[in-house]
């Protein structure tokens, strides 16, 4: 008999709720929900689950789709003109969230000297996002050199990840305000990236106080530009401990453990922050954290979301997420299956927004890239990970509808919504799924999509 595992992200994704108010007792859900029914038909058994839909949200989260990608140094906004146009058409098919840094990762120094602004490259990226119908998110990182002790008018890209000096926190906040005014249609801003430059080598821990002071200055600046601006942080990497003595006792499991110093930094930021509209994290789920199976390691995403939900009631965003690095004997199907399984774990455990860190196209057959290289004639072609994975998750599993894992067979992981069912084979052998009383053979590492039609899957 198939059963529905009640880990619906709809219970946890919206901000503004009181802890401990969920239908199932999970912390962090939002009261004031209007009940409705949805049905998942698996193995011939009609499973009816009572869920609720949001009727209000003081911290308005991003609208559907909830899925998207971050532009990196090599994206699709430049290169061969025809290739760029091809990419624009492909990405426009399913509008998604698109995030862009203000410096680095494809954007030049926006203020190489105090008051001297250059937004040409950032303008191009933001225009590209608008051309493709994307939901824009700006990552307020990194800082011009003169804010880091460098000489005005120069840019040392080797020091990109250096944090601004405390005496320049106000200058960085002012730059953030300039950015917010320049792109008034942007509503979501992420403050900094992974605590870059905020590690205290003397104390051997994260400088949460320093980051929080920067965050608060930027938060105030953005809200002064427009109170409707949504601000998120701290964008910590929930990394495993390089030193076993820092292994967390609170966030560990068969999947491994998180560095306690990361949790301490998050708690300190959460206590001292001015305000927050959504929390931002990232992390790697790899076998190096103590688990031999790359799919079992993905439970880390669920564990981190559960821990976060005990700390905050605002939406949870994953700005980056990574899985076990590819091994020489892995097929392209294996690589894709692992990432789809990770997306299932993230969605079913309460992530509202999940952003894919877009890699530079390796080739025209890159299994985990989104499009072919626009620098080359004929480039910009959509690749299956864009059309068959990311876009389908955006259409089928937005954060404003219930999304739950379902049990369909051994070795299989499945996610269901009222729109679709996706099944991924996490093994190297054919596995059988039982859906609507039918047996479906799923090939090794295959990802199988079934659409919902009149209460059945097809």
Describe it:
Keywords: Glycosidase, Hydrolase. The chain has helices at residues 81-92, 120-131, 169-182, 208-225, 260-272, 299-311, 332-348, 384-396; strands at 4-5, 33-42, 45-54, 67-70, 97-101, 135-140, 188-191, 199-200, 205-206, 230-237, 247-253, 256-259, 278-285, 316-323, 351-357, 404-406, 412-416, 420-425, 431-435, 438-442, 447-453, 456-457. The chain has 458 residues and is of the alpha/beta class. The protein has one domain (56-402): Glycosidases (TIM Barrel). The chain has an 8-stranded parallel β-barrel, surrounded by 6 helices. It has a 6-stranded antiparallel sheet with strand order 1-16-17-18-21-22, covered by helices on one side. Strand 19 and strand 20 (438-442) form a beta hairpin. The longest helix is centred in the middle third of the chain and has 18 residues, at 208-225. It starts with a strand and ends with a strand.
What keywords describe this structure?
about 450 residues, 22 strands, TIM Barrel, disordered N terminus, alpha/beta, globular, 6-stranded antiparallel beta sheet, 8-stranded parallel beta barrel
Number of domains: 1
Q: Average the pLDDT over all residues and give the rounded result.
A: 87
Major beta sheet, strand line-up? 4-5-6-7-10-13-14-15
CATH level 1 class label: Alpha Beta
Along the chain, the helix and strand elements come as EEEEHEHEHEEEHEEEHEHEHEHEEEEEEE
**What would you report as the Rg, rounded to the nearest angstrom?**
22 Å
Low-confidence segments, given as residue ranges, are 1-61
